[in-house]
Amino acid sequence: MRIATRAGRTVLVSPDSATVVDLAKASEGAFGPDPRQVFDAWEELVSWYGAATVDFVAGDRYEFSELEAPSPDPRQVFAIGLNYRDHADESGLTYPEKPTVFTKFLGSFAGPAGDLALAGETVDWEAELVVVIGKPTRYVAAEDAWSHVAGLTVGQDFSERTFQLTGPAPQFSLGKSFVGFAPQGPWLVTPDELPDPDRLSITCTVNGETVQSGSTDQLIFPVSTLISHLSFVLELSPGDVIFTGTPSGVGGARKPPWFLREGDVVETTIEGIGTMRHVCVKAQ
Q1: N or C: less crowded end of the chain, CB within 10 Å?
Q2: What range defines the domain where residue 58 resides?
């Protein structure tokens, strides 16, 4: 199953991604339209979808620019730093013994296509797999964690490096939370749609040039470990969002550094899920 958010309403996405169907209308009011309500009833939705016949042929054609983050109003947002060894290496930092966690504030959420307003002269890219939780999760073992996942989507952890690293205490959460700095999409894909949800290629291009190319099987702390670790600190709620970290290739680690400029086009792709496309523009 694939779901997306369009005009604030949850929609079902056809298998070929050509059309969408409003979930509330398709389910005759049983689910949605509010995305948070959909995640709160996720297990019931999955059961309904397995037995339903959705008429995607009569669905709506759409533009990517109409879509929003699949879980646009989560109760909690988690982001993981230094979760690929090659990214830790390029950053000159030691590998973490436990997940390094910060947040991206909700005001930074955006959809899979549109403009990215450059908040400074050192805006960087970070392609990431994003996980959305599907049911209340507390004290879950790693081997059971995938059963708590609603689905996966593509994300970018855009970062204004100067703001992020200004001390004496770095401002990771704030420096990564300017408007539009947490785009996600184009839709949420349930794990059963993927041959191996722990092994997905992830790439980022800038103006057609590949700047990041990795695989999620290179995560230091895989999805299951992250969910288990977080659940032993606090309860995860349906719809909660986890940015899982980025592979090597970020602009700030290059010599010389390479940061985004007005007119640059950033495309972010994860195998089996889809592609996001953002055009860099001057901040107002």
Answers
A1: C
A2: 2-62
Q: Where are the beta strands (DSSP E) in 94-219?
A: 100-102, 109-110, 113-118, 123-124, 127-133, 149-156, 159-160, 182-189, 201-206, 209-215
Give the H/E segment covering residue 225. helix 223-231
The conformational region for residue 250 under phi > 0 = left, psi -120 to 50 = alpha, else beta, is beta
* CATH number (domain holding residue 166): 3.90.850.10
What is the C-alpha separation between 104 and 155, in angstroms, rounded? 12
pTM of the model: 0.97
> Which position has the token pair 């400029």?
261
My answer on whether 76 and 200 are in the same domain is yes
- Looking at the structure of the chain, the number of domains it has is 2
186 token code pair: 């184009």
Q: Please list, in sequence order, all residues whose beta carbon lies within 8 angstroms of the beta carbon of residue 259, skipping any fewer than 6 positions away.
A: 121, 122, 123, 124, 161, 251, 252
Question: For residues 70 and 5, what is the distance between their CA atoms, to the nearest angstrom?
Answer: 5
The answer to whether 83 and 220 have CB atoms below 8 angstroms apart is yes
pLDDT tens, residue by residue, 126-153:
999 999 999 999 999 999 999 999 999 9
